[in-house]
Structure formats: structure tokens, C-alpha cells
Amino acid sequence: MNDILQYKDYIASIHYNSADEVFYGKILGIDDLISFEGSSVKELKKSFKEAVEDYIKTCEDLGKEPNKTYKGTFNVRVGTELHRDAALFAASNNISLNDFVKTAIDFALLNKDGLNKFLHHG
């Protein structure tokens, strides 16, 4: 199950709070914190679309780029054995660990369907 909504080029994570009986979410991939909620799925979707439109308009009014600026670097914790195995594989193929990780990510994204099946049906 994907707990996401998509509208235009924006994606949001969604959740349900059983105590308050409300669906809520936040827009992902932007520098700002934009959240929304609704008491039904229909209301949640409407609230999400309104939040996206409001965010785009606010950014426009401020002369600000609405999307997150990705710097191209991030830290990943993989555990010592995986780190060692990846480093050995990279070295034995005469590439840097960084290039190996970039290639692995690129490969995974090029094979999204197979990766989704693997992730969700193990």
C-alpha cells in the first residue's frame, strides 16, 4: 500500500490519526513544511490540492523557487557488513565506493517495477 498522494509535481505522505479520526499529510520534497488534513479521503485530497495551489501561489508572490534544492549529497547508514561488502565490490571493480552507490541507485531507479515487487513482496 502506498500512503502517498500526488498532485501536479508534488507528492505527500498521508496518515490516519484514529484518536482524532482525521487523515493528515505533508508535502514531501520541498524546503517548507506544508501540511493538510481532512475527515474523509475526499476531503483529504481536496485539502492536499488546495495546499499545493496555495504553496505555489505563496512562492510566486515571494519570488521564491517552490521546490527543494537537492545538493547531491546525503548520508546513508548501511551497517558494517554491507559497507564492507560494497567497498570490496567497488575496489575489486576498480571504482570508487561513491561511484558504486551512484550506479546502484541509478540501476534501482531504472528498474522501479522489479524493485517495487521486491520491496513489497520480499
Order of helices and strands: EEEEHHHH
Domain module count:
2
Overall morphology: elongated
Assembly form of the protein: single chain
Low-confidence stretches: none
Percent of residues in beta strands? 15-25%
Name the helicity range. 40-55%
- What separation lies between the terminal Cα atoms? 14 Å
Report the sheet with the most strands, covering strand number, pairing sense and barrel closure. Answer: 4 strands, antiparallel
Annotation field: number of helices: 4
* Tally of strands: 4
Description:
The chain has 122 residues and is of the alpha+beta class. It is built from four helices and four strands. The chain has two domains: 4-62, no CATH class; 80-121. It has helices spanning 41-62, 80-92, 97-110, 112-121, and strands at 4-7, 10-17, 22-28, 35-38.
What would a concise description of this structure say?
The chain is of the alpha+beta class and 122 residues long. Helices cover 48% and strands 19% of the residues.
Task: List the SSEs and their pairings.
Blueprint lengths: L3 E4 L2 E8 L4 E7 L6 E4 L2 H22 L17 H13 L4 H14 L1 H10 L1
Antiparallel strand pairs: 1-2, 2-3, 3-4
List keywords for this structure.
single chain, four-stranded antiparallel sheet, 4 strands, elongated
